[in-house]
């Protein structure tokens, strides 16, 4: 089943009615069934992935008895392995005209990786499984976001991404909670968590394969006729607006440390029991899912750049609060709220920005390029922060990271306003977007 942009309107558009609606500036929001089903797929898949992520530190260092250095290597793979294939997967989705098929391959690979957890018992086996899972994530993300983009109303693009991220993070919050409950009822019940994870992964792949239609953007095939199979060129990414976004995202990514480090700082400061550690993931993801839609609406109304920058200001506040000599439940909860707000204001908004700044026929490639830059720079940031922590201590390292982030935010304020959609960017039916919404 194929759905184009023109199909979603139900045939010919009533131009007089569209003009009247545009003049009133009140296009009613309608959530596409495609986005709803993709959100459900992401929700059950995140239950699968995050239930494992929440116990992986304890499983590797406690149950398997491996060193923290070994876990650091595995966590680095978890942060950046997906970057290996993101652009290639995005380009394949654009070139083939079947983003669903590429996304399905990614979800399927991650599902197969879940089987490996049932049999793995050493460092190299775990590292290989995590690599396969993250490569699957890298394959599926950009094609999935391309499906969201072409299924969304252009006037409510960030809000549509917010709806998807809200559903996604229901799963991201439920996964660690399920893992926590399993370990609470079954001490050392890691294999049970892996079985539950596999079951949810199978459900996600089944829904995607059987229910989600193969949506395609108009002209996705015609944009690159008679090209060689591997005719990708980096010049395709040299669009001025997209280039500015990539520079800004990379600069911010270099000073964005992994969530695990923030959680370790909080645990070290407050000395709460280790078994409560997975609930920190739950807190962040609950805030993310609650704020994803409101901040998406805010980005559509007042501009995506201000919301994107504001999200990094929330992260900056989280760093300084984590480094402050303040303990207790409220200080920890405030850090989780700020961290969740950061993701709600940046994750879907970045994809929406990239889609607006990408020319027609290169939608998934443009989104993937932004996501690749973020993945690679955050992987480097995590590695560098680990060394910094060892050299100067936890609080000082977080303060240094916060100072660097503050400087990066100031630079991005001057970089991003020049990122504007070109005339060849993805066509947007109806009224033209305001310049401030780039």
Question: What is the structure about, briefly put?
Answer:
The chain has 438 residues and is mainly α. The chain has helices at 5-8, 15-24, 33-63, 68-80, 86-96, 99-117, 123-151, 157-185, 190-210, 240-253, 259-270, 278-302, 304-323, 329-356, 363-392, 394-415.
Number of structural units classed as domains: 1
Highest-level CATH class: Mainly Alpha
Would you identify the CATH architecture? Up-down Bundle
Q: Beta-strand level of the residues, as a percent range?
A: under 5%
SSE arrangement, N to C: HHHHHHHHHHHHHHHH
Number of helices: 16
The outline comes out as: globular
How much helix, percentage-wise, in residues?
over 70%
Give the number of DSSP strands. 0
The biggest beta sheet, please?
none
Explain this structure to me?
The chain has 438 residues and is an all-alpha fold. The chain has a single domain (30-218, 235-428), classed as Growth Hormone, Chain: A. The chain is 73% helix and 0% strand. The chain is built from 16 helices and no strands.
């Amino acid at each position: 089943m194929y759905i184009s942009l023109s199909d979603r309107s139900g045939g010919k558009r009533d131009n007089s009615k569209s003009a009247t609606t545009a003049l009133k500036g009140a296009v009613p929001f309608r959530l596409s069934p495609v986005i709803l089903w993709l959100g459900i797929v992401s929700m059950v898949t995140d239950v699968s992935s995050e239930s494992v992520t929440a116990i992986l530190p304890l499983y590797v260092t406690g149950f398997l008895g491996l060193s923290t250095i070994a876990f650091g290597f595995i966590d680095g793979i978890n942060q950046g392995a997906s970057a290996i294939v993101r652009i290639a997967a995005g380009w394949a989705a654009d070139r083939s005209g079947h983003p669903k098929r590429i996304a399905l391959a990614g979800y399927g690979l991650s599902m197969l990786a879940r089987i490996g957890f049932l049999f793995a018992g050493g460092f190299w086996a775990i590292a290989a499984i995590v690599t396969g899972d993250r490569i699957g994530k890298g394959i599926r993300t950009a094609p999935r976001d391309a499906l969201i983009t072409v299924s969304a109303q252009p006037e409510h693009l960030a809000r549509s991404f917010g709806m998807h991220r809200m559903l996604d993070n229901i799963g991201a919050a439920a996964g660690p909670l399920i893992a926590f409950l399993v370990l609470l009822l079954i001490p050392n019940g890691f294999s049970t968590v892996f079985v539950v994870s596999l079951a949810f992964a199978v459900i996600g792949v089944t829904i995607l394969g059987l229910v989600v239609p193969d949506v395609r953007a108009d002209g996705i095939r015609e944009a690159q006729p008679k090209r060689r199979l591997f005719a990708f060129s980096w010049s395709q990414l040299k669009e001025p607006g997209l280039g500015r976004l990539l520079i800004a995202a990379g600069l911010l990514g270099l000073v964005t440390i992994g969530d695990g480090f923030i959680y370790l700082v909080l645990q070290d400061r407050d000395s709460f029991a280790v078994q409560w550690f997975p609930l920190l993931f739950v807190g962040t993801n609950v805030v993310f899912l609650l704020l994803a839609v409101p901040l998406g609406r805010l980005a559509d109304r007042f501009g995506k750049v201000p919301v994107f920058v504001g999200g990094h200001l929330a992260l900056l506040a989280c760093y300084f609060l984590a480094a402050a000599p303040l303990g207790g439940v409220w200080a920890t909860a405030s850090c989780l709220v700020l961290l969740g707000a950061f993701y709600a204001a940046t994750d879907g908004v970045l994809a929406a920005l990239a889609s607006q700044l990408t020319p027609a026929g290169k939608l998934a490639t443009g989104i993937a390029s932004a996501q690749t830059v973020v993945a690679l720079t955050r992987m480097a940031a995590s590695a560098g922060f680990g060394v910094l922590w060892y050299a100067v201590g936890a609080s000082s390292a977080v303060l240094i990271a916060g100072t660097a982030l503050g400087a990066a935010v100031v630079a991005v304020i001057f970089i991003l306003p020049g990122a504007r959609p070109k005339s060849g960017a993805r066509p947007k039916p109806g009224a033209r977007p305001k310049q401030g919404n780039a």
